[in-house]
Amino acid sequence: MTTTTAKAAGTAAVPSAYATLTRATFLASVRDRTTVFFTFAFPLVFLVVFGLLFRGQSVDGGLPYINYVAPGVLSWGVGNAALFGPAFALMHWRRDDILRLIWRTPTPLPTVLGSRFVVAVVVGLSQAVLFTAVALLPFFGLHLDGSWPLALPLLVFGVAAFLAMGLVVGSLADTPEAVAAIANCVMVPMAFLSGSFYPADLLPGWIRTASWVLPLRYLDDGLTDVLAGRASFGSLALDCGGLAAFTVVFGLIAARIFRWSNRT
Amino acid sequence: MTTGGLLDLRPALRPGILVGPALTRGPAVVHLLKDPVTGVRMEVGAKEHFIITRLDGSRSLADIGTEYAACFGARLGDAQWQQMLRLLSTRQLLDGGRPVTAVPGGADRDAPASGWFSGTTRMVADAPALMDRLHEATAFARRPGVLVPLLAAAAAVPVAVAVEFGELADQTGRLYHQPVTLAAVGCVLWISLGLHELAHGLVARAYGLRVGEIGLRRVWGLLTYLYCEVEDVQFLDRRGRQVAVAAAGAVMNLLFLLPFWPVWALLPDSAQALPALGGLLLLGTAMALLNLLPLPPLDGYKILGYVLGTLRLATESRTFLTVAAGSLRGADGGARTRLRRYPARLRLIHGGFALGCAVAALAVLAGAGLLCRATLPERYGSWTPYLPLAAIAAALALRVLGLRAAATRARAAARKAARQPPAAERPTSQPTVPARQSGTPPQQREKGDMTTQPRPAGTAIVLDGVSKRYGEVHALDDVTLTVGQGEFFGVLGPNGAGKTTLVEIVEGMRKADSGTVTVFGVSPWPRNTALLRRIGVQTQTSAFFTRLTAWEHLETVAALQGADRAAARDALELVGLADKERSRVDDLSGGQRQRLALATALVHRPDLIFLDEPTAALDPEARRSLWSVLRDLRGEGRTIVYTTHYLDEAEALCDRVAIIAGGKVVALDSPGALVRSMAAPARLLVPADRITVEQARAVEGAERVVLEGGEVVIETRHANKVLIELGALVDMDAIQTRTATLEDAYLRLTAATPPGAAETAGAVGVPALGKERGR
């Protein structure tokens, strides 16, 4: 009897590594005020800029301009945050020997990544909520279709794909400057080629075709369809599948180039 | 007797101390002094400078005193000499053979807090290295054949701009109606400003100065510009060179415009790019020339200071004006005497500068007024010229209000603090005594009483013929050693001796190239989580989860280790950090970080603990309290492997010590046995003003007598006998005894390693911490 209670008390007192890590990651993200600002304010700034530039125009695709710009900028913002955050964290953790510290503990790496993923998803969803709330203002005039919950799986898959890319970047780069340089080199051209800031329908045909090799294109395409209420199960599955494929590919690359320490 | 001893001293200034030429600061003649090791800068007067420059180790203080008397007409008394020597030795300026420790906050000055809108961002990790590369790349431009035409071309730019001023001004005016183009011109000029800073750095580098930092500085979110910190310009021996460093930026701005000139001249009149190019040329030249105005903080002000040999000309001019005004009013007799201290030349300089500033301020005000009238629309009426004046008045009023508010707040805070009961003030900077400390004070507990405790049988670590190489480097070379369970095992060795590799192989992070490793009877390679649970490692770099508090960090580590919160709490209290648990890890001091790193290693209560220089950043008191923590850990039967640079620490704590150099174990024994095997002499230290070297040599039993940093050092193997003899000459209280320490053994052993390793051993400065036993 006594042993059981003692045991129960013991297990209750040991918090799971996963929960504690998630909390630590979350606190570290929230306390980085600059990053929080850019994560949430930057997409809004872009929304305002492009919203002002193209207000009231409509495009060949048949939707009002805001229905192209809002999902585009949102997918770019979510992808950006999901890539930069883990990339910086991985680089810092390796440089400051936190990875070595984790290596010495019985906690497996997937637990660490899992907590990172949960925080990234939460950040992505909060971005989406805030951004959509602003876009719904009469000034921008976005109309949300009733099928909007379909955006949730898209966002989760999208965060996973960009997180995997972030792990690749974080494994390649050894300094914050290198992370910023590589990540920007990846994200900026991708944003333009995927039509995040203007309707993809305006792109030349061959670029539109070629852009399907970019993960942002899938997220953008899926979100545009969902918000406009023209998403079918097939197209959604295709977009999610594409993002999942990118997750696997970049995850494998990240696993291949992962380093516990800068000193080899 | 004491006087004779003091004046016979022949102290020497530490090599490498920079002494600047004579400058004037206000009416006073000063010299700048800089210690390149600690980064400390100071100003000394002409008399101090006279003495300091003569401290070369060959002249005695008596010689210098004679020269001083001849020059200044006054003799220095004993008290003055002692004061002088004390000052020099506390500032670490004397060559005493002891390694110099960097003064915290000396070399890296307290940078103002860097926020979103104001602050600096370092752009280049190793600015000196970058400047070296640029220096080589620009070698071609330092030949007279290139440099002279370049300078001539730079000088020609303002002339050409003056000739074409009408047209350029017209185009610049048009530019103001094309905001996008204007922004583009601004960007190009911003790049020119960046090159301006690099030019300062390059010229400084060419004269052998060091470039400290290159980065971006943000001012109130409005301005962001590149800066390049050049150190020690005032120590250049020729004023021309100082001026060259300061003027390089403006020259670079002008050179930057050169390629644009032919394009502007060749373009047809209808070309759209004309306003952009014209604006660039005019604004760029204006920027370069404005920078040469002698007003702080512009380059021209620095140049003026270098040419005149003055320090803080602007501030001193203001002081001079106050003094001069006071003297004119005649009310204050003190002001008149103070004014008399300024020689005619300095009166001219300070008065002239103040006048120049006033004229410049009026000119700027008038210019701004005219500009307002020219640019603002008619409907603002006739008062537009007074707009700048009104703006300045408003700004001044705001400043006064702000200062008043700040003063009120400060007073309120002071009142509030005064109301707090004194008991509420808890000492936070002081290291707290660890919770688990036992009753005996740590100083009195010798490790002797520990070695007698029963030690658990068995071995913790067995290394047999372990080698590891990285390319050509033998990190470990056939290392064989055994660490018993419950043993406190010291690993000593210079940096790069292989200590880190040894630890990494034992914990299973690296695989040995050859040889066998067992820890608690099993192989640590490949990663053995069951074994890792029993090992705690304190890392050298203090790995903490970023932006967490000390407690949150430990909680996280405990969770990762599968330990409960109570374990984290215990570890935090064990190292005496409980009062800092709410501080962010980034805000902890060096010593606090060390203790948190120790707690991180202990959180899962491991049996085998690796500690890597755990006391490196601690003050003596905190070190002692940590020692007792470590002794308690050992008392609990844990095995501790301890790398350290502090040899007194190894001597006080370790059961056995392995000295590693060049990847080999060069000695392995108890500290006492190592010291005994050296049979090194004891050292007796007597302040040099109490005894002369000759007197000391005459003492029977003294083997070697040297003068080291103001103290006569007597080496002897018969310490007792010599002490008695010395007691007849000087007060016993003044004598310090230093017996042979592990340090002597260590230095001898690491110096005698193979050639490849000796290099590393010699290059490392080992902190000379003698073990002082009584005064």
UniProtKB/TrEMBL annotation, chain A:
Keywords annotated in UniProt: Antibiotic resistance, Cell membrane, Membrane, Transmembrane, Transmembrane helix, Transport
Record's bilayer topology term: Multi-pass membrane protein
ABC transmembrane type-2 domain ranges (all copies): 34-261
Cellular component terms (Gene Ontology): ATP-binding cassette (ABC) transporter complex
Predominant location category: membrane
Compartments in which it is found: Cell membrane; Membrane
Alphabetized InterPro entries for the sequence: ABC2_TM, ABC2_TM_bact-type, ABC_2_transport, Nod_factor_ABC_transporter
Gene Ontology terms for molecular function: ABC-type transporter activity
Record field: transmembrane: 36-54, 74-93, 113-140, 152-172, 179-198, 236-258
GO biological process, one term: response to antibiotic
Similarity comment: Belongs to the ABC-2 integral membrane protein family.
Name assigned to this protein: Transport permease protein
Native source species: Actinacidiphila paucisporea
TrEMBL record, chain B:
Enzyme class: translocase
Membrane topology, as annotated: Peripheral membrane protein
Keywords for the protein's UniProt record, in alphabetical order: Antibiotic resistance, ATP-binding, Cell membrane, Membrane, Nucleotide-binding, Translocase, Transmembrane, Transmembrane helix, Transport
GO biological process, one term: response to antibiotic
Pfam families, per the entry: ABC_tran
Regions that span the bilayer: 145-163, 175-195, 243-267, 273-293, 348-371, 383-401
Gene Ontology CC entries for this record: plasma membrane
Gene Ontology molecular functions: ABC-type xenobiotic transporter activity; ATP binding; ATP hydrolysis activity
EC number(s) given by UniProt: 7.6.2.2
Subcellular locations according to the entry: Cell membrane
UniProt keyword Transmembrane helix, yes or no: yes
Domain ABC transporter: 461-687
Record flagged with keyword Disulfide bond: no
Superkingdom assignment: Bacteria
Main location: membrane
Region (Disordered): 413-457
Annotated Polar residues bias: 428-443
Family: Belongs to the ABC transporter superfamily. Drug exporter-1 (DrugE1) (TC 3.A.1.105) family.
Protein name, per record: ABC-type xenobiotic transporter
